[in-house]
Design goal:
Oligomer: single chain
Bound molecules: 5'-O-(acetylsulfamoyl)adenosine
Shape: globular
Strand order of the largest sheet: 12-11-8-6-7-14-15-23
CATH class of one domain: Alpha Beta
Structural class: alpha/beta
Number of helices: 20
Amino acid sequence: MSDEGIAKVFPPREEHRKGVPIKSEEEYKRIYDESIKDPEAFWAKMADRIEWFSKDWDSVLEYDEKDVRISWFKGGKLNITHNCIDRHVNNGRKNQAAIIWQGEEDDDVKVYTYGQLLYEVSRVANMLKAKGVGKGDRVSIYLPMIPELAFAVLACARIGAIHSVVFGGFSSDALYNRITDCDSKVLITSDGGFRGGKAIDLKGKANEALEAGTTVETVIVVRRTGADVVMEEGRDFWYHELLADAEPQCEPEVMDAEDPLFILYTSGSTGKPKGVLHTCGGYNLYTTVTFEHIFGYQPGEVYWCTADIGWITGHSYILYGPLSAGATTVMFEGVPNYPQPDRFWQVAEKWKVNVFYTAPTAVRMMRKTGDDWIKMHDLSSLRLLGSVGEPIDPEAWYWYYDVVGGQRCPVVDTWWQTETGGIMISPLPGATNLKPGCATKPFFGIEPLTIREDRSECDVGENGRLVIKRPWPSIMRTLWGDHERFKDTYWNVYPGYYFTGDGGRIDEDGDVWILGRVDDVMSVAGHRIGAAEVEAALIGHPAVAEAAVVPVPDEIKGEAIYVFVNLKDGYEGSDELRKELVAQVRHDVGPIATPKIIQFAQGLPKTRSGKIMRRILRKIAGGGMHEDLGDVSTLADPDVVDQLIAGRIS
Ligand code: 7RM
């Protein structure tokens, strides 16, 4: 990352201030200072950005620091789908497009107005009720990016069921783990999905996941590809058949602000994924307000976030934030390079997209395929560009700004996490000086800090660990079924602070630079993958004695997966075995975790207590020589280091 030295600064231009909520740096500073001085007063005032059935909350924030119990607006009543749908229908937006669904094939399009969305979501809600789903029940959703995914998510929220969306790229094992961890009663899936012109099988994987026996009583299957699938009598039902009997009126369940809204599993530094739990009120409010301020959405505009709804970005900024703000949001089934490398630009031109939000990996990929693919499209509708998921390197930032945005559009580099629910650090288009590669300023009510190992505050410009000072409305409330892990992972590492797991640096302007993960979590093509999950899969293979997984820099994906395996006696490393190991990882974790390189090793560097030193392996995988590795004298067997360096594969 070439973020050393003096970064070039792009102040907001006059046209960037038009129609956005915050119009100058002074205004941002004034409101920010207020929001930090008295966050409760600030959020109580902001609470009017959404509608409540009752604003009679006990208190704005309750925060028990010792047991880390956090509640916002407890006692207040609302339903997020009322805010995302009904209130717009009631306020003159009934016939405005809510969701523009663009299928993988260009003529495969569906547009749902807010009025139609109410109809669809209400029917699916009634369908779930008819299957015995009620408030607090868990529903797992394993679907491709089709409209039914949006309906299913919102239908759960409408009746107070807790949705757990599992990304379609995850394997049957991953799905099984995510179903069993939260004891889902219902699974909603499909006969398959389309990806890059090929049909992918979801029902087969779902069947496999359920084989071992789970709490799932009912499987609802959406017809998408028309593939032949195995349906289990009495358990499996076709979505379209159930829907035929569903009434289109369904009153939204009255939810407490602190009732659970959804679980979303995310990778951590152990093999077991963490069920991040979000609740209704704070999440609804925070995603709405960040969406309005950071994207500066204006009536009539078309907003497109290219993420998958299987990730938090899709939850917060394809569905809940934009819909709550009354936006027109594009939901895209396809991939960036099918049928051609200009697919994103062709779609953006076709729908006259004004706000485009994507991941750096996609930007790098399209930068590599060349400017001609983009110059053939009229992208003059674009007003603002967003980036999320990993640090955007200045090269990619400049290309995004120059070539995609034609130097007209501010680039908002938004830093946040599954756990934070919404965007935490980001420029505001009318107020913030942009710096390529820098996430810049905290959102209102957010107080980031960089600290040293010993918890002392870093100096200006010093690299440290990024922590956040106090709870904000959309902070996760717990890890499903494991409050101790929640406390240990996020709150007890640096007592008094929420620990992000990221490194960071705050410069002389108070701008925050994100330096990437400091734990064993990798970011491959913007997908968050725990090293431990991949290692667990590898160790599941009979030939493997031990495995260590580290990220290596990758030109397009940001990071790629480099694997060191130590084989059991009697096994020989071979290309055949490599293939088997890759297949094992794809089966256990999913294709998104496919290793790039597998190096067979005689041993792994370990401390005397037996802990694998991934720090050293990371350097070796990245091409480091012995002298780059720092002190290796504490290793149990320092000789393995030279063997590993000699055996490195580039
Ligand atoms: C939204 C999302 C979270 C991790 C986070 C970071 C990295 C996300 C940025 C970023 C640098 C950014 N949620 N990350 N956004 N790093 N600049 N703008 O991605 O839970 O899947 O991942 O992603 O390391 O901790 S996530």
